[in-house]
Design goal:
206 residues, mainly alpha, transmembrane helix, membrane
Length: 206
């Protein structure tokens, strides 16, 4: 049962990560511009944020849940502004030279942190995890072991998706020249700006 619970949670983590949104677009662009490692490390930022929200939901930390839900609007606004800033930065970026295979620590930490913060800007994700984990548990209170397995499963499933995505992008990355990369940066930056405007409008109207 423990293995089955872990696998179910991993599938949930993968399904949450897989839809292409601003996070996926950002990780694709970074994989193309800076290499597989940076793209994957960026994805790990999203996986870590999902695991944090999953932990709050799995362990039933009601006070933290209520606190994040109360902060939903300001966090969403901050996330939209951060997303807009990243989009503008991408629009004006000059495509770098082909990245080396080695990870640059100076680039890796900001890549992880920026996606982690951006993913945390949607605190209502906690409510989704609470509902999902309650369904998996069959309505019974989760034990500490089960909750831990679920959180680990979500992280591993999400991380697996980002690894698959980064490796997939690696197969086409070296076929792109500087001109193609400039267009990719512009399109990705424009899409991030569109996502930011949509999130701002949705938050203000709501």
């Amino acid at each position: 049962m423990d293995v089955l619970l872990f696998l179910k949670s991993a599938l949930i983590g993968l399904s949450i990560a897989a839809p292409v949104g601003p996070i996926g677009l950002l990780c694709i662009q970074r994989s193309l511009a800076h290499g597989t490692h940076i793209g994957f490390i960026s994805g790990l930022g999203a996986a870590a944020a999902d695991a944090c929200y999953g932990a709050v939901g799995a362990f039933g930390i009601g006070a933290i849940t209520r606190h994040f839900v109360e902060l939903a609007t300001p966090l969403a606004l901050a996330g939209a502004l951060f997303l807009a800033w990243m989009g503008l930065k991408m629009l004006g970026a000059t495509p770098p030279e082909r990245a080396a295979n080695a990870v640059d620590p100076a680039r890796a930490l900001p890549a992880f942190a920026s996606v982690f913060v951006l993913t945390l800007s949607n605190p209502l994700t906690i409510l989704s995890f609470i509902a999902i984990f309650a369904t998996l548990a069959g309505g019974s209170p989760l034990s500490a072991t089960s909750a831990t397995l679920m959180v680990m499963g979500v992280f591993c499933g999400s991380a697996a998706w980002w690894l698959i995505l980064a490796l997939g992008i690696a197969t086409i990355r070296h076929r792109l020249d500087a001109r193609a990369m400039r267009w990719i940066d512009r399109i990705a930056g424009g899409c991030l700006l569109a996502f930011a405007v949509w999130q701002l409008l949705r938050t203000v109207i709501a």
